[in-house]
Amino acid sequence: ERGFDHTEIEPAWQDEWDEADVFRIPDDAEDPAYVLAMFPYTSGNLHMGHVRNYTITDAYARFERLRGEDVLHPMGWDSFGLPAENAAEERDTNPRDWTMDCIDSMTEQFKSMGFGYDWEREITTCDPDYYRWNQWLFKRFREEGLVERQASELNWCPSCETVLADEQVEGEDEVCWRCETPIDTREMDQWFLTITDYAEELFEALDELDGWPNNVREMQRNWIGKQEGASVAFEIPGYGEVDIFTTRLDTIYGATYFSLAPGHPVAREIADDNDEVAEYIEMAEAAEEDDLDVTSGVFTGEYAINPATGEEIPVYVADYVLTDIGTGALYAVPAHDDRDHEFATAHDIPIQQVVEPTEDAGVDPEDIDVQEAAYTEDGVLVNSGEFDGLTSEEARERFVEEFDGEARTEYNLRDWGISRQRYWGTPIPMIHCDDCGYVEVPDEDLPVELPEFVQTTGNPLDAAEEWKSVDCPDCGGPAHRETDTMDTFVDSSWYFLRFLSPDLDDAPFDTERADDWMPVDQYVGGIEHAVMHLLYARFFTKVLDDVDLLDGVREPFENLTNQGMVLGEDGNKMSKSGDNGVSPARIVEEYGADTARLFIMEAAQPEKEFAWSAEGVQSASDFLQSLYTVASEYAAGDVSTGDDGTIAEYVDREIAATAAKATEEYEDFRFNHALQAVRELVSLLRRYRDVTAVDPDTFEDGLVTATKLLAPVAPHVGEEIWEELGGEGLLAEAGWPESEAPTDYDLERRLIEDTREDVRDIVETVGIEDPDAITLGVAPAWKHTVADVARDADNVVPAVMQNENLQQYGEDA
Ligand code: ANZ
Ligand code: ZN
């Protein structure tokens, strides 16, 4: 019985790699492939989602390294944040100790998976050597005018007692992303980074991010919410001119009412003399976001004059008009806007059509009844005076001038509130003095380190009296420190730059090295970061370039992959706490890291979800054992050898073709296809050995090639086999197989594959269970189809090799 014992070989090879510094990347490397996985939050435990994320990235990094690239593949810890504080409270310890323990145990887990990181570059965001640069950067942002104090209504989690960014509020019932408590709102003064200054570039540059999945780009587009339109003034007699924002200026002739947001200054002015309006505003402002529907609103008794028609239209205050979007006022066109239609129907407001479909729209204008439902498409103007017959697009352009409007672009994106009233984060480097107001902490006094942790129900920094009280850097008078800490998304907005020069102590990162090494070539992480993390990191990169800390790098991540979810065997999301969670540690213990890695990578393409399968794990394990066994039997002289001509030639071509195919699939991030090809090669080798005495050169070349192609995914077993076969040095440094496919080979292979596809199609239509078995000639009815493939003389041998049952047909042919 020859097998390997993963509990012995895996730790041993991990040590060998460390000793040989396989994963170290020297500072003077010219332009390494930068392969990065989103660094983990230090929860203490790796779950399967992590394991998948890091396996994908590690396999790709190893692939690039084996191909001879310098590879930067670092790892660090996203280690600030509320959970540490909560855990510390639960366990009666402090967030730092808890976090450090988590890092220790996660490091162990990483190592046991065989992930190859350059640990010399490890960074930890809760380390003062890291967060001092958050503070330093905050000051540079402030110098650029990108930091503001803004009073605003904020999402407040009553359980975490902290402000949440919009992105941290989840689901329709608006719950806290960490603890799932329904959120409240509160009005407070906060520190904001004015990301809106970059809205246009953040939006437009998405078009060029070809290496990003379309859905992520689309999510960012929606989040930024760019709307091109115009503003036009409507006169409300007694109250002056009120600007509206519209994306549909072409519909201005169809405006049948005018609407103000409850927070609009003119609405408040009207409310001064109108109790009904005052009551409505009060009610609307007290209401939770989803309490009121689109029809909620009140007539003010006032009228606005439509500059296009000169007509007076009634003015409403309505909750569906948002105070901080556009100008907080709009003219409403029920015939062409769904919300306006609903509102008008409820309030008995006339509906006037002004756009009808163009002739080539494929819709009969007669079929449009705007009394029934709004027609929201562009079209041709009707009932629009002298402008009838213009297209919507022409009208929009024309009307801006005609009605003294102004082209205007609006964004849904809001500034980024970074203040958190919690302890475990980067202290904001500001001091408040009664005389001088807010004063920056001088650079030489950075970092502002966190004081000892104390347990309180509120913000522990508020309770740290000694820490809080300082002299004002400007006037020397008594002052106190800002007690808000930064949103942890600040940490992750530039960490990928710190990896380049993690020990630098006079700058956050080395500008020249960033020039050489950035952007990240391949970034891998969860789709849950499609908006916040990935948008903030793009924002930071642009600002850093604008303040000359970067030199022309405007996007941080050239290629992005979002790994799909790992589901439980039941097909439900594998939860960390639920019963369907499979513990990575247990799998590694029982089967070894290579098996876990191979199973995960074979299960699906990185972007696709897949369900955990004990059977799949077993199959991965069996495969590795059997490859190892074939190799060690061969090494021990247990495989009979001899020269055998045609078959060796065929096997040689299969080996070359497999290397070519696998290489291409690795490059395209279709690891499962690459691995499938390797499996096919290995079973070919086994059949070769079973049917005849093998050509030793060919056979050994086959084993070596399979092992090398497998090395990114199953590196430990790979080393073991490499050693058995007498390979020199470490497999991790042994290079990548030649990947030139024989030129005449592709065509033949495609022919075989196409035919298989055809057969599979037929089989699926007829509904026979195992198409592969049939393709390979088991079901008599289909044999002739497969035999067609074998008819080509050159393919007789391949066909025979595919399946013994075909021998007959090959010979017949
Ligand atoms: C007149 C109009 C006619 C509009 C029409 C639309 C259709 P979208 O549709 O998402 O691009 N709007 C303007 N300010 C608003 C505010 N503060 N709160 C809520 N809605 C507001 O958004 C642009 C449209 O949203 C604008 O164009 C405006 O209604 C409305 F047939 O103006 B429109
Ligand atoms: Zn002062």
From TrEMBL:
Q: Tell me which EC number(s) this protein carries.
A: 6.1.1.4
The Methionyl/Valyl/Leucyl/Isoleucyl-tRNA synthetase anticodon-binding domain, residue ranges: 651-765
Q: What class of enzyme is it?
A: ligase
Q: Which GO terms describe its molecular function?
A: aminoacyl-tRNA deacylase activity; ATP binding; leucine-tRNA ligase activity
Pfam families (UniProt xref): Anticodon_1, tRNA-synt_1, tRNA-synt_1_2, tRNA-synt_1g
Name the domain of life this protein comes from.
Archaea
Give the family this protein belongs to, as stated in its UniProt record: Belongs to the class-I aminoacyl-tRNA synthetase family.
What name has this protein been given in UniProt?
Answer: Leucine--tRNA ligase
- Species annotation: Halorhabdus utahensis (strain DSM 12940 / JCM 11049 / AX-2)
